[in-house]
């Protein structure tokens, strides 16, 4: 029986690279995407589907989580809150979606248990998490223990976070090495047609390409 990994994939560069790393390690990929009423939901879903086709996944799930919009409290899900464009600031930014990764990982664990997959991959990166508490490695370690306490004894899920200690330029370089289709990925927090180039996520992506000596294939406004 071939080994399987459930890969949480947003359509962004980090989670896409994480999935390609798992494929490089010999895993069949079960792709998991969430529509949570984020500003760029349509574009992210389009990217996810295109990436899945290139990656050759064995199964994909598209999960709707509309309650994030009801909760609000994030510039990604509440249109009344402006997406910051002045550069990364200290503290937890308004683009943080409350406990998003914890919820994503819980659902990924359920999918993994169903398919007998012992690996769950998530593209968290501590350096560019912008203060997001659910991107910290100690949170992932703690949550892995909780998952295994709450699933069958023989489930034994390990949460892989291959990028967690990397800088953005290292992520870009590794994506080039693995021939990841970066032109299919999306990072912008604001727009779903042409990337804004000024939100935190665009700034980090552009800086990563610059420091890696590469050219970002996406157009920017």
Describe this structure as you would to a colleague:
It is a single chain. This protein is an alpha/beta fold. It has a single domain (4-212), classed as 3-Layer(aba) Sandwich (Rossmann fold), CATH 3.40.50.620. Helix content is 38%, strand content 11%. It has a five-stranded parallel beta sheet, with helices on both faces. Helix 2 (41-55) links the parallel strand 2 and strand 3 (59-64).
The geometry reads as globular
Distance between the termini: 47 Å
| CATH topology-level name | Rossmann fold
CATH homologous superfamily identity: HUPs
| Helix run count | 7
Entry keywords:
221 residues; alpha/beta; Rossmann fold; five-stranded parallel sheet; 7 helices; 5 strands; 11% strand
């Amino acid at each position: 029986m071939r080994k399987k990994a459930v890969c949480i994939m947003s359509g962004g560069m980090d989670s896409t690279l994480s999935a390609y790393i798992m494929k490089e390690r010999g895993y069949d990929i079960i792709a998991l995407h969430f529509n949570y009423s984020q500003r760029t939901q349509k574009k992210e879903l389009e990217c996810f589907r295109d990436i899945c086709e290139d990656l050759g996944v064995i199964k994909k799930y598209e999960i709707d989580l509309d309650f994030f919009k009801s909760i609000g409290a994030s510039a990604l899900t509440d249109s009344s809150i402006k997406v910051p464009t002045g550069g990364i600031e200290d503290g937890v930014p308004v683009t943080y979606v409350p406990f998003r990764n914890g919820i994503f990982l819980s659902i990924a664990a359920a999918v993994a248990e169903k398919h007998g997959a012992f690996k769950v991959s998530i593209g968290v990166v501590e350096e560019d998490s912008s203060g997001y508490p659910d991107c910290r490695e100690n949170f992932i370690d703690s949550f892995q223990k909780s998952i295994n306490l709450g699933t069958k004894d023989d489930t034994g899920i390990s949460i892989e976070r291959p990028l967690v200690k990397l800088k953005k330029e290292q992520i870009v370089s590794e994506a080039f090495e693995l021939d990841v289709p970066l032109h299919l990925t999306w990072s912008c927090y604001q727009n779903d047609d042409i990337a804004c180039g000024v939100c935190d996520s665009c700034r980090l992506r552009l800086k990563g390409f610059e420091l890696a000596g590469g050219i970002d294939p996406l157009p920017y406004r």
